[in-house]
């Protein structure tokens, strides 16, 4: 058997604190405004992808979480793969021009690929995986094809798969610069600060159960661009100011400003959704109750100690510093008790050892002010929050050893 041409990578999820909402070009996925996000740890949420190229494969094939998908049915998948192939083709051409003997230039750009991709979190968690998915796809193609492009340049390839995916190409704190060029050349992700910059910053994802199927981000934002008059104001004045203020807050590790801008931007994004005609609403009663609890918690603390943010669905993401997490988890597990069928350590796995025992979560309210707050808020129906994922700021895509491959010797899913 000849040399195997294969790469395996993992890539993270990111949660925006300044939201991307609106495209100025839907085919190239060029946004109406810049956005900024925090990359979350791959220990808790990530996509792993293996890609192999072989002259023996008759066609490109893709398996997502064990199920084969038709690549040609997704314009976005085709666009990302074709763009990466063109970069490889250019590299092969350059190698030949540089005098590398033709037989030593591996024509990977001409071969079909097998792509196998898996999330380390259950799809049932209701978390969007397109960002980590496309970041993993493009990082794996970059490694397989040995592409010389920088991570920012490769983020453009992830962007044509799904806008928010370009931000998952970096760890830490990441800006997606909207850019002005018609061809999208300057619409790419840059790292604002790395993961080590602010190690105390952590996140809780409160997975809110939801029966309705939400309007997809892609469709929702298109209608917003076409119908909302508030949206124009957001794009023109609000976001540019917030991008600068947010970068300053991150540079200074200024949690109060970071948190206030995050909450205000989430609120404005959902206000713009409501100003869309017909209106779009992504948050549910549980989401709104969490907003109220966070403001009450901050009032009880006498400072802004926690921030909420919501994407195109009812799940809440809470940002707070490590030292405030115990009280927040006690508050949430008290007010949103787990369903009886859910095991305590599946409901809140406690990866940072906040409690001595998982059963302790929600049993005790240590801080008297938080206890009063919890009493006033009362308990919501069990299962309103399905599970709580506790995580922290994480690194960017990782190239994994061959032992982590998702493909067998013959290049089929293991
Ligand atoms: C609300 O990146 O999913 O999460 O570019 O059409 O694939 P497409 O949209 P997508 O939109 C994400 C919107 C958001 C805000 C954000 O992540 O910035």
UniProtKB/TrEMBL annotation:
Q: A Gene Ontology biological process annotation?
A: sterol biosynthetic process
Pathway per the UniProt entry: Isoprenoid biosynthesis; isopentenyl diphosphate biosynthesis via mevalonate pathway; isopentenyl diphosphate from (R)-mevalonate: step 3/3
Q: Which residues form the Diphosphomevalonate decarboxylase-like N-terminal domain?
A: 11-189
Question: Which SUPFAM superfamilies does the annotation name?
Answer: GHMP Kinase, C-terminal domain (SSF55060), Ribosomal protein S5 domain 2-like (SSF54211)
Enzyme Commission number(s) from the entry = 4.1.1.33
Matches recorded under InterPro entries: GHMP_kinase_C_sf (IPR036554), Mev_decarb (IPR005935), Mev_diP_decarb (IPR029765), MVD-like_N (IPR053859), Mvd1_C (IPR041431), Ribosomal_Su5_D2-typ_SF (IPR020568), Ribsml_uS5_D2-typ_fold_subgr (IPR014721)
Give residue ranges for domain Mvd1 C-terminal: 203-400
Statement: the UniProt record of this protein carries the keyword DNA-binding: no
Q: Which reaction does it catalyse?
A: (R)-5-diphosphomevalonate + ATP = isopentenyl diphosphate + ADP + phosphate + CO2
- Cellular compartments per GO CC: cytosol
Is the keyword Zinc assigned to this protein? no
What GO molecular function annotation could you give as one example from this UniProt entry? ATP binding
Name the keywords, alphabetized. ATP-binding, Lipid biosynthesis, Lipid metabolism, Lyase, Nucleotide-binding, Steroid biosynthesis, Steroid metabolism, Sterol biosynthesis, Sterol metabolism
| Top-level EC class as recorded in UniProt | lyase
Q: Which family does it belong to?
A: Belongs to the diphosphomevalonate decarboxylase family.
| Record-linked NCBIfam families | mevDPdecarb
Matching PANTHER family, A to Z?
Answer: DIPHOSPHOMEVALONATE DECARBOXYLASE
Record's protein name: Diphosphomevalonate decarboxylase
Q: Which organism is it from?
A: Coemansia asiatica
Q: What is the lineage of its organism?
A: Eukaryota, Fungi, Fungi incertae sedis, Zoopagomycota, Kickxellomycotina
């Amino acid at each position: 058997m000849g040399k195997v041409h294969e790469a395996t990578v993992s890539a993270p999820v990111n949660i925006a604190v300044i939201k991307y909402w609106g495209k100025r070009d839907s085919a190239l996925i060029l946004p109406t405004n810049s956005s900024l996000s925090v990359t979350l740890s791959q220990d808790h949420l990530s996509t792993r992808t293996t890609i192999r190229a072989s002259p023996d494969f008759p066609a490109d094939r893709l398996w997502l979480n064990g199920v084969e998908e038709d690549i040609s049915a997704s314009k976005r998948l085709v666009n990302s793969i074709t763009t990466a192939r063109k970069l490889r083709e250019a590299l092969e051409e350059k190698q030949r021009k540089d005098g590398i003997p033709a037989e030593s230039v591996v024509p990977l750009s001409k071969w079909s690929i097998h792509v196998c991709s898996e999330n380390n979190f259950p799809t049932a968690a209701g978390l969007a995986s397109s960002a980590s998915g496309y970041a993993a796809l493009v990082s794996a193609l970059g490694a397989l094809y040995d592409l010389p492009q920088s991570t920012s340049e490769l983020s453009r390839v992830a962007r044509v798969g799904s806008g928010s995916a370009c931000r998952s190409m970096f760890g830490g704190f990441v800006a997606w610069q909207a850019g002005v060029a018609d061809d999208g050349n300057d619409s790419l992700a840059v790292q604002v600060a790395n993961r080590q910059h602010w190690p105390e910053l952590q996140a809780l994802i409160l997975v809110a159960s939801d029966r309705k199927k939400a309007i997809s981000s892609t469709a929702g934002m298109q209608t917003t661009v076409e119908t909302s008059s508030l949206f124009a104001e957001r794009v023109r004045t609000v976001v540019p100011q917030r991008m600068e203020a947010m970068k300053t807050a991150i540079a200074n590790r200024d949690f109060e400003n970071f948190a206030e801008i995050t909450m205000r931007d989430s609120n404005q994004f959902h206000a713009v959704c409501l100003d869309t005609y017909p209106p779009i609403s992504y948050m549910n009663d549980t989401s709104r109750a969490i907003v109220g609890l966070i403001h009450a918690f901050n009032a009880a603390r006498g400072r802004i100690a926690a921030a909420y943010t919501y994407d195109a669905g009812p799940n809440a993401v809470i940002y707070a510093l490590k030292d405030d997490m115990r009280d927040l988890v006690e508050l949430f597990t008290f007010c949103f008790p787990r369903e009886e069928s859910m095991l305590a350590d599946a409901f809140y796995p406690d990866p940072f050892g906040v409690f001595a025992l998982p059963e302790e979560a929600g049993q005790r309210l240590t801080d008297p002010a938080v206890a009063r707050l919890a009493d006033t808020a009362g308990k919501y129906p069990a299962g309103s929050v399905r599970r709580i994922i506790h995580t922290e700021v994480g690194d960017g895509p990782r190239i994994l050893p061959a032992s982590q491959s998702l493909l067998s010797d013959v290049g089929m899913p293991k």
